[in-house]
Every structure is written in structure tokens, then in C-alpha cells.
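Trying the structure run again after the queue cleared.
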Amino acid sequence: MRRSKTQRVVYLGLLTGLAMGLHIFESFIPMPVPVPGAKLGLANIISLYVILNFGLRDAVVVTVLRTVLGSLLSGTFMTIVFYFSFAGGLVSTLVMGLAAALIPKEFSVVGLSLLGAVTHNLAQITVAAFVVESIYITLYLPYMLFFALPTGFFVGLTVNQLNKHYRPS
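Done. C-alpha cells:
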């Protein structure tokens, strides 16, 4: 069944609001490990869900709105935290969306999520390397991936469940 333009805008608006809420909520969760930047990636659930149900273009819009508006509301807009979040979110959404569109049979939902988790961290490390003006920051990548892979797996499993129970009509 095809959605009307109004239904599409309403769905995407609600999903953007949900992604912002998850983005802000996650900023208040203390991580039990002393690894700067380690997060659960809850807002990425929405990004992947939108890729699978609405397409890459809409997912990019939701990701940009989520990172910009979420950082405005949490007080981190135009800080280094914003740049890490924006770069990681945008690059991972683009990579997941392109993989889903160009080689859909090669990646499961969990595989797409893991691909997104890895590219999110690569984008953040790239931004960090420019900020600190040192390539040695890349030595931090294995620690980041140690936490990103399990959370990417969780995000993929969650999106699988969402797709089973909540498919937009």
C-alpha cells in the first residue's frame, strides 16, 4: 500500500522526534566503562529503520535533523561533541543506506547495523584526527570498536523486531 505525502511527513516527523529523544536520553546515561565516546547508539535504531522503510534520502534528513536539533536541545551544538555526532551519524547513515540499496542481499539488518557502527567510529576518529592534528588518535579505534560492535548488534536486532511489528502502511 502506498502512503500519502501527508502520512509520510507525519511518520518521518514522529521518527525524527523519537530519534531526538533517544539522542538526548542517551546523553544522560552514564557509561560503566572509562572509554570516552562509548555510547549505546540508540538513535541509530531510528536511522536504520528509516533506511529500510522510507529510503536513504529520508534517513539522511532524519539523521541531520536529529543531530542538529538534539544537540541544540542538549546544549552541545557546534561543540566537538556535535561534530563527532554529526559526522558519525551522517557517514554511517550514508554507508548503511548505500549498502542496503546497492547490495541488499549481501547484508542482513544486523549486518547493516554493524557496518553502520564501524563507519560511525571511523568517521569520529577521522574528525578527531583533524581536531588534534595527529594520526596517532587512530590507535584509539580498536577500543571504540570493542564497544561499537556489541551495540551495533543490539541496534540491528532491535530494528529486526521493529520491522516485524511496526511496518508503516
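The chain has a mean pLDDT of 88. Worth checking whether this holds up in the mutant runs.
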